[in-house]
Amino acid sequence: MTAGNPRIIPASALQPGLATIVVVLPDRTIRSRVRMVQARTHGVVDVAFASGDVITLMARAVVGCIDPPSKSRRRAS
User: Fold this and answer.
1) Residue 40 belongs to what domain range?
2) Are 62 and 11 in contact (CB under 8 A)?
3) Is residue 11 part of a domain?
4) Which of 70, 68, 58 is nearest to 13 (CA)?
5) Reduced to 3 states, what is the DSSP secondary structure of residue 41?
6) How far apart (Å, rounded) are the C-alpha atoms in residues 44 and 58?
7) Within-domain flag for 9
8) In a domain, 74, yes or no
9) Does residue 34 fall inside a structural domain?
10) DSSP character for 50?
């Protein structure tokens, strides 16, 4: 199983989907899919994850994004 394409994106660009998002916090790390994103006033973004975590990030904060492998790839048999 391949990990997909890792990249760094701003929190303001988050969208619900199949990609795994990685957020490193002082006491733990969240690795989960995004279920809901809501932009709020004063440059913050509320993010709800499939894991049940809900956090508020500055819109300019960056997160790691690991896109799922492309389905167009064929496995060698």
Assistant:
1) 5-67
2) yes
3) yes
4) 58
5) helix
6) 4
7) yes
8) no
9) yes
10) T
Give the model confidence (pLDDT) of 61-74 as tens digits: 998 988 877 765 55
- Tell me, rounded to whole angstroms, the distance of Cα 61 from its chain centroid: 12
Instruction: Count how many domains the chain has.
Output: 1
**Residue 1, pLDDT above cutoff 70:** no
DSSP secondary structure of 53-75: -EEEEETT-EEEEEEPPPTTPPP
Give this prediction's pTM.
0.77
d(CA 13, CA 60): 9
The pair of structure tokens assigned to 32 is 């989960």
Beta sheet of 54-58, edge-to-edge order = 5-10, 62-67, 20-24, 29-40, 44-49, 54-58
Here the CATH number for the domain that contains residue 51 is: 2.30.30
Per-residue pLDDT reduced to its tens digit, 5-57? 788 999 999 999 888 999 989 999 999 999 999 999 999 999 999 999 999 99
Q: Would you give the DSSP letter of residue 12?
A: G
